[in-house]
Design a protein that fits this description.
The protein is mostly helical. About 0% of the residues are buried. The mean pLDDT is about 90. The N and C termini lie far apart (about 70 Å). It has a domain of about 35 residues. The protein has two helices and two strands, in the order αββα. It is about 60% helix and about 5% strand. The chain binds zinc ion (ZN). The site of zinc ion has 8 residues, from loops.
């Protein structure tokens, strides 16, 4: 019984350690105050300074336009298919 409890405690400890390691991987110093913040944050919780999240890149206009065109095309096709289905299933 006591052995089982210890095993569980060790498992919990290992899990907590993995969680900490994961968080530390995402910890970066704030460029404004130098405190440790997470790399997905957009604002420092300590000094309120603006942060640029890792992996964030504003989409360029051309890509945005192309995505919008594809979106409209897909939307139109889906709408036509739905209308056809309604007409033919009557
Ligand atoms: Zn800060």
């Amino acid at each position: 019984m006591a052995r089982l409890d210890r095993d569980r405690l060790e498992q919990e400890e290992a899990r907590a350690q993995r969680r900490r390691a994961r968080l530390e991987k995402h910890a970066v110093p704030c460029p404004h105050c130098g405190k440790s913040v997470l790399d997905h944050m957009t604002r420092c919780p300590y000094c309120g300074g603006a942060l640029v999240p890792k992996g964030y890149a504003p989409m360029d206009e051309q890509k945005k336009r192309r995505l919008r065109t594809v979106g409209y095309a897909v939307g139109t096709v889906v709408a036509v298919v739905i209308v056809l289905l309604i007409l033919f299933l009557k």
